[in-house]
């Protein structure tokens, strides 16, 4: 599994420019990745009930909630990716094309609880924000100053702008 180093060089082209020129394909990939991640997060909540029984599950539900939220925080902070982003070839980056910092990831995750929650309007607010935003950002991305971009596009830009070995 590959990731971007936290000190990745500035991609030369801004993430704003890369995101602005992303096609509808990115919106579809984000939507698919979102649903993959929601299945994983729901699995973190539902599988323990099935495995442990309802009584034990209820007494430990805080652990499973933390695991479901932690899935997003750890994945995006450590690798810039969750399983959904890995499968769809997308990655969360900061304005410089590097992994987001912990505050950015926590901001994205907190906003995700409202705008991507399948029980609260089914992720419609996030979809509308991404499709209407010039930078293809959902509200959590706007607040955290992050972008979700194609890994391939990001690597191509970084390869073109990387200093050549002398």
H/E series, N to C? HHHHHEHHHEH
Strand order of the largest sheet: 1-2
Domains, number? 1
- Regarding quaternary structure, how should these chains be classified? single chain
Overall outline = elongated
Gist of the model:
The chain is mostly helical. The protein has helices spanning 15-20, 24-52, 54-59, 61-78, 83-88, 102-115, 124-132, 139-144, 151-161; strands at residues 90-93, 147-150. The longest helix is centred in the N-terminal third of the chain and has 29 residues, at 24-52.
Task: Describe this structure as you would to a colleague.
The chain has one domain (15-160). The two termini are 30 Å apart. The radius of gyration is 17 Å and the shape is elongated. The chain has helices at residues 15-20, 24-52, 54-59, 61-78, 83-88, 102-115, 124-132, 139-144, 151-161, and strands spanning 90-93, 147-150. Residues 1-12 have low confidence and may be disordered. It has a two-stranded antiparallel ribbon with strand order 1-2. Helix 2 (24-52) packs antiparallel against helix 4. The protein is mainly alpha-helical and 166 residues long.
Give the secondary structure arrangement, pairings included.
Elements: H1 15-20, H2 24-52, H3 54-59, H4 61-78, H5 83-88, E1 90-93, H6 102-115, H7 124-132, H8 139-144, E2 147-150, H9 151-161
Antiparallel strand pairs: 1-2
Helix pairs in contact: 2-4, 4-6
């Amino acid at each position: 599994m590959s990731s971007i180093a936290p000190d990745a060089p500035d991609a030369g082209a801004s993430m704003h420019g890369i995101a602005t020129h992303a096609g509808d394909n990115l919106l579809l990939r984000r939507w698919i990745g979102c649903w993959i991640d929601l299945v994983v997060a729901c699995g973190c909540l539902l599988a323990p009930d099935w495995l442990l029984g309802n009584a034990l599950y209820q007494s430990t539900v805080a652990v499973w909630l933390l695991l479901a939220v932690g899935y997003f925080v750890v994945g995006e902070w450590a690798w810039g990716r969750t399983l959904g982003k890995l499968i769809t070839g997308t990655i969360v980056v900061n304005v410089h094309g590097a992994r987001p910092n912990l505050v950015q990831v926590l901001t994205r995750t907190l906003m995700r609880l409202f705008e991507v929650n399948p029980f609260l309007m089914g992720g419609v607010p996030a979809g509308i924000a991404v499709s209407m935003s010039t930078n293809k950002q959902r509200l959590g991305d706007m607040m955290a100053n992050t972008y979700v971009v194609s890994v391939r596009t990001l690597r191509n830009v970084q390869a073109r702008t990387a200093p050549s070995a002398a």
